[in-house]
From TrEMBL:
UniProt xrefs under Pfam families: NLPC_P60
Positions of the NlpC/P60 domain: 63-188
Keyword NAD among record annotations: no
SUPFAM superfamilies recorded: Cysteine proteinases (SSF54001)
Entry keywords, A to Z: Hydrolase, Protease, Thiol protease
Protein name: Peptidoglycan endopeptidase
Family stated for the protein in its record: Belongs to the peptidase C40 family.
Domain of life: Bacteria
GO BP field: proteolysis
InterPro entries assigned to the protein according to its UniProt record, in alphabetical order: NLP_P60_dom, Papain-like_cys_pep_sf, Peptidase_C40
Length: 189
């Protein structure tokens, strides 16, 4: 082999090594960037509810369906809020979240409005400590019903609270929610 072809082979090997090293450095940089991505606000916080020590209860004749509703609701915690939204991919507003959960977990079609949901037939629950897992919970004020969520038990409910937020789990008797709780509605039983 002559001197010129040996030099070309060495240059080729050096070039291949440099490309491999560059690819490795690039891959490591991407992995490091993913590992250091910004953290989102926590969607799960420890409960401070006075109802946290209550035994978990489900509707007497619909325990399985109530469990399906709870699992579906909990799986959606962290989904972005989107006004008018009613899918995990597009995000949820409060009534879109409840509508999606009930349609997919209980095969119950609900209207896409918290006020309309509040007017459907079902057992009205006036006291928070009488709620069972799977009950709809309604909030409002002087202008009527303006918000809905799904009670999961032990003083907690899942809901899509506001623009810029995510679906989250909150204490039903927390400072804001306690003052705006109107009633619950039992559709599963």
């Amino acid at each position: 082999m002559d001197q010129a072809s040996t030099g070309d082979t060495d240059k080729h090997r050096s070039c291949v090594r440099a490309l491999r090293l560059g690819a490795l450095v690039g891959l490591l940089s991407l992995l490091a960037a993913c590992a250091s991505s910004p953290r989102h606000e926590a969607t799960y916080k420890a409960s401070n509810s006075a109802l946290a020590d209550e035994p978990a209860r489900a509707p007497e004749n619909a325990v399985g369906t109530a469990n399906d509703v709870l699992f579906r609701a909990m799986a959606l915690v962290g989904t972005p809020y989107h006004w008018g939204g009613n899918t995990p991919a597009g995000g949820f507003d409060c009534s879109g979240l409840v509508e999606y959960i009930y349609r997919n977990a209980a095969n119950i079609d609900l209207p896409h409005s918290s006020r309309d949901m509040a007017s459907i037939n079902g057992l009205k629950i006036k006291r928070m400590d009488d709620l069972v897992s799977g009950d709809l919970v309604f909030f409002g004020g002087g202008s009527g019903i303006s918000h809905v969520g799904v009670y999961v038990g032990k003083g907690r409910f899942v809901h899509a609270p506001n623009s810029g937020g995510t679906v989250r789990l909150d204490d039903i008797d927390g400072p804001y929610w306690r003052n705006h709780f109107e009633y619950g509605k039992r559709l599963l039983d």
